Amino acid sequence: MPYRPKRPCSYPGCPILTDGHFCEQHEKEEAKRYEKYDRDPAVKKRYNRTWKRIRDRYIAAHPLCERCERNGRITPAMEVHHIKPLSQGGSNDFANLMSLCTPCHSEITARDGGRWGNR
To answer: How many Å apart are CA 110 and CA 102, to the nearest integer?
Structure first.
């Protein structure tokens, strides 16, 4: 399957061609900016270093996407999903977590109204 043509980085004035929105250098800068200014402080507080440790342990124990496995596909898990969101009283217990590939996690988040403001 052919690849899409590369496009210029979305950072103002950067001519570097990239497959994503930003080149490698500006992607890091944009992520820092997002964390500092755009991310809700309550969310920032819940997803700290402790969460990253829990997430890493869960991914190590469940390396495949649990949703894809149920459908007979083998896909590496990239993200950990809270079955009952923390904002609704969920916890970081392994019983409330699910390892997912990025497409499955995006689909669930969009359906549940997560990142797009329908919480």
So the answer is: 12
104: exposed, middle or buried (C-beta count within 10 Å: 0-12, 13-18, 19+)? buried
What pLDDT was estimated at residue 114? 56
Q: What is the pLDDT of residues 1-30, one digit of tens each?
A: 567 888 899 888 899 998 888 888 888 888
**Residue 100 structure tokens:** 């997912």
Give dist(CA 10, CA 22) in Å, integer.
5
d(CA 99, CA 79): 6
CA-only gyration radius of the chain, Å: 17
Cα distance between residue 113 and residue 119, in whole Å: 6
C-beta separation of 59 from 80 below 8 A: yes
- Cross-strand bridge partners of residue 97: 82
